[in-house]
Amino acid sequence: MAVLRAFLQAEPAMVACAAALLLAGALLWRLVTRRRVFLVDYSVYRAPDSWKVSKKEYDVIVASTNNFGPESLQFMSKVLARSGLGDETYAPPSLTNVPMDLTMASCRFEFESVAFGAVKDLLNKVNVSPKQIGVVITNSSLFNTTPSLSATIMNHFGMGSNTINYNLGGMGCSAGVIAADLARQMLEIYPNTYALVVSTENLTYNWYPGTNRGMLVTNTIFRVGGAALLLSNKRKDSRRSKYELQHVVRTNLAANDAAFNCVFEVEDEAGVRGIRLAKELMGVAGMALKTNITTLGPKVLPVTEQLLFAANMLARKVYGSKRVKAYVPNFKKAFNHICIHTGGRAVIDEIEKQLTLGRETVEPSRASLFRFGNVSSSSIWYCLAYIESYRGLKRGDTVWQVGFGSGFKCNSAVWRANRRIRDAHPAWEGFDVAHMYDQLAKMT
User: Fold this and answer.
1) Domain-embedded: residue 397
2) Does 197 lie in the same domain as 122?
3) pLDDT of 310
4) 443 neighbors 84 (Cβ within 8 angstroms)
5) Domain shared by 133 and 59, yes or no
6) Who's near 26: CB < 8 A, 6+ residues apart?
7) What is the 3-state composition of the chain as percent helix, strand, coil, each rounded to the nearest 5?
8) One domain, residues 368 and 224
9) What are phi and psi of 184, to 5 degrees?
10) In sequence order, what are the beta bridge partners of 82?
11) pLDDT tens for residues 219-275?
12) Residues 226 and 368 placed together within one structural domain of the fold
């Protein structure tokens, strides 16, 4: 009591100084004791060969539905021909069989094939029982069921009654990073826990049989895919885990009407539901990326790059943006590998141009788009699987994953390799990089 009385009677300056020291100590303690989050391993789904569909086959199937006139068919065929997709992507039987089967049963079959396949492969790799998993998180932007997709996985694998589950919907192609971030937050709360994340989308549910051009694009570039991740905060997993999560930066432009409306689920003029992609999409994506990397940069860039960037901003403010060209930081100095969401050929081209990345840096994303198509939120994991399969990583290597999605959002995750990694993922078996570049050169 005497000490407390003396503290309260002390000079205000001394009280403020003591309070500041206590606060600094508390922050330091939180930093030291903060639970580290590890990515033990992950799995990307490769559909059966019977699900493969070439661009020509796809054109024939779409025409056979008799839902589309000559102009719509020509438009979709033209988009697909220039999309950057190869001839070995996957579509579910519900869409490739004639007539199409767009029932809820077919939607569930597609989800279960992808999710159960990816999770089973992952659990076998990490030698973890479903009963050991404390948190389950699924993300599928448009297809969401009752019971939830996360509950569907828990039911199939017989997980415990105390397992916490979340289902993220409506968050677009960048939801893979959001789901990983939610898992991180859960692992910071619950000690000695595994978190399972499953990222996917559903083609059957999202087929659009209308004629609005802004809504037809989704019929052409999206394909079957999904990823399952196992994250851990257990100290014993620090050595065997592939990666440790370093940073997550999430940018949301929902307050901007143009950004909010550029990817929008709506009925067309005839009352047919679909996803409308606005012509402003690429501009909005560029704005979101700029905002995201402005926050991410100070966390990851070398001091020299930060100084150059700050000096450039000052010069542009003093002399004007027309006289001083904007300086784009060299993110290749911050990251050893970059995984760009495979939203489309134009998306990859634009980011390569804006960040001056070069052909080799964006190759994993081009390869993922060519081999698997736009697989929504799971695409960044196909990119990383490509890197592990064909290049490998050294201990300490950093990976930047960047995704874009409705809302509009740009989300980044930064991982550091815990050990040397060179895994041959079955999903990438037999892929020919030279053939890809040969085929891309023919796309006009």
Assistant:
1) yes
2) yes
3) 86
4) yes
5) yes
6) none
7) 50, 20, 30
8) no
9) -60, -45
10) none
11) 999 999 999 999 999 999 999 999 999 999 999 999 999 999 999 999 999 999 999
12) no
Q: Is 373 left (phi over 0), alpha (psi -120 to 50) or beta?
A: left
CATH number of the structural domain spanning residue 309: 3.40.47.10
Q: Are residues 233 and 253 in the same domain?
A: no
Rounded Cα distance, 130 and 160, in Å: 8
The pLDDT of residue 318: 86
Instruction: Give tens-digit pLDDT for 392-423.
Output: 999 999 999 999 999 999 999 999 999 999 99
Q: Are residues 94 and 206 in the same domain?
A: yes
Average pLDDT, the chain: 92
H or E, element range at 137: strand 133-139
Q: Of 237, 264, 298, which closes a domain?
A: 237
Q: Are strands 133-139 and 273-277 parallel, antiparallel or unpaired?
A: unpaired
Structural domain boundaries, residue 78: 38-237
106 and 213 fall within a common domain: yes
Q: How far apart are CA 339 and CA 348, in angstroms?
A: 10
Tokens of 108: 């569930």
Instruction: Judge whether 255 lies within some domain.
Output: yes
Q: What sign for the dihedral angle of Cα 315, 318, 324, 328? A: positive
Q: Are 405 and 263 in contact, with CB atoms under 8 Å apart?
A: yes
- Summarised one tens digit per residue, pLDDT across range 109-143 is 999 999 999 999 999 999 999 999 999 999 999 99
Domain closes at, from 204, 237, 270: 237
Residues 251 and 222 both lie in one domain: no
The one-character DSSP state at 326 is: P
Q: Are strands 273-277 and 337-340 parallel, antiparallel or unpaired?
A: unpaired
User: Is 6 inside any structural domain?
Assistant: no
Residue 172 sits at the vertex; the CA angle it makes with 168 and 173, to the nearest 5 degrees, is: 110
Q: How far is CA 121 from CA 167, 227, 233, 417, in A?
A: 21, 10, 21, 21
Number of domains present in the structure of the chain: 2
Q: What is the pTM of this model?
A: 0.90
Please tell me the distance from the alpha carbon of residue 249 to that of residue 331, in angstroms, as a whole number.
15
Residue ranges with strand state E in 268-423: 273-277, 337-340, 398-405, 409-417
Q: Which residues touch 16 (CB under 8 Å, ≥6 apart)?
A: none
Low-confidence ranges of the chain (pLDDT < 50): 3-4, 7-8, 15, 26-32
Q: What is the pLDDT of residue 31?
A: 44
Distance CA(200)–CA(223), nearest Å, equals 10
